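hi support,

uploading two proteins for the ticket. first:
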Amino acid sequence: MHALETPQTWAKTHFGRVEMSDVRRVARVVTIAEAMATHPGHSLPQMFENPYEVKAAYHFCNLEEATPDRLQAGHRSLVKQCLCQAGTYLLLEDTSELAWQDCAPRAGLGALGANCDRYQGVHLHSVLAVRWTGVPAAGAWRRPEVEIIGLCDQQYYIRQPRPEGEPKRNSRVRKSRDRESQLWAQATQRIGSKIADSAVRWVRVCDRGADIYEHLQVCQRAGQGFVIRASQDRTLLAAGTTQNNERLLATAQASPALGHFALGHFALELRARPQQPARTAELAVSATRVALRAPQRPGCSPGRYPPIQCSAIRVWEIAAPAGVEPLGLNHWHGCCYVTKRWRHLRQHTPVWCSMPLAGSSKSSTRPSRKALKSGLGVQRLQLKTAQRLFAAIALLSVVALRLLDLREHLRVAPDQPAEKSGLEALQLEVLRLQSKRAIKTVQDVALALGRLGGHLNRKGDGAPGWQVLWRGMQQLQTIVEGVHLASRLKQEFG
């Protein structure tokens, strides 16, 4: 994502190849994206200096050709190019709700949850690609750094009310029409198959909502691996037969810990939470090969579809402190599916271990949702139609990844020289002068930016988060602009 590029350069890279009917509209996309990246969290009127630019932004979002797929086409093309290079890529997938509460309804939005009269919104189904950069060091584990690539796909789903006269609990009728659960399989089809290169690996990382037979099936057909949190206690088939054998959760529970592997036991650092102090949990891992029986579908005879061959992974805590509920104790939170055998997945242990223990794939996609909702204030947008909202969300979704990439960039190599942080020489010198401290490493740069953004750097505060780092980066850019203006004033007035 190159978060430390100037907003103008970044906007041209990701949105300069949008296909529009008029070249001036392409320039408008770049201008809006640049403004969003320069002023994250601001409203559209606050992003521009003159009323004409504001009016032009509103007009653009109302164009019929300003669809999310078209606006993100250039960005997704860059992502697809990266995914074809040698390496292991995790495709983090989740559905989040974007809701608006208004007195007047917004055309094109649907109901959310039980409060249909109060909230309108859309279900945003996103697939975020990151590059797996390496294996964590031995000992206590913290999430390894990843390289954020970008959005592979994004779908906007409007929930429709149940047709009048349709029985409320008729599964056969419900499965005969379009459903929200189909978003997972549709995402696979929209992303496409992995290239036939053994040096390239794609692994889908999904929450329990993706525990759908058709989704697992299309992933395998597309050459994509998957790590999916188990939601259903599926029936297993005995090896080499079509006879029912055991249930998934009981089988995972009975599987012994892989103590003979280097990663069969490891420690996981848990941050402090309300009424829960920080601690280190010792975890055990088990893996067993299973065959998931295909479910019966309306109009299909049993056994028509083949079983899903995969591995069931369970993670649980050993010797939890007194009075503390062990991690992974609940079966529903301690099992997931993977597509390869254990010996091929040892290096990815932290990925699927973090799923059941830290909130599944949501723990991986939560920062991007938070960046979109809290950091950029997407739910504060005052656009009155779904078409305008979706156009703005499509741009803001990519901007949100720019915020996250800043944090990851500063985490990759904290002990390297400060010059490796990605800051320009002038930015780095201004940061040193402003902080009045020696800045020798990348970690020093992160802490200095954090102080600019409001981080107090107390013992229990932890490292600066992406929001604090981004505020610090914006503050630094403002100071650097002041330095440039002072230099011009000196040249003009001596």
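and the second one:
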Amino acid sequence: MKGGIAVSKKDGRDYLYLIWKEPISRRNYIVGQLSKNSQYEFSYGHEVKQAIKNGFELLIPFEEIDKIYKSDTLFPTFSSRLPDRKRRGIERILEKYDLREFDEYKLLKRSGARLPIDSLEFIDPILKKHNGEIKRVF
């Protein structure tokens, strides 16, 4: 984020929401939360049970709905949604998202990591209330 308040940070952690778009109604559900500080953490979101009733399936490596998963590296389930750092033309992709170097988390945050094979996407949440202008990078 350039200039502005970091509204997706709370208690020293940077957060992303994992959104699932229900295919028929096109309603978005917050099904998960990924955060990063010194470690990555993933947990299911407050709308996951409602999403399950509407067809969402838990992610294979995260089969316990009430567990907080922790890792020193970005979970392969999420990093596999990103282009390979050695991919030919990666510089253009990074430039598109205003990144100077390959950073998995920042690329996940800026790109949303959408794939044509599913209805998942990461979004940068607004966690703080404030009275000023919010600047976002899309």
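thanks. also noticed: Confidence is low (pLDDT under 50) at residues 1-6, 134-138.
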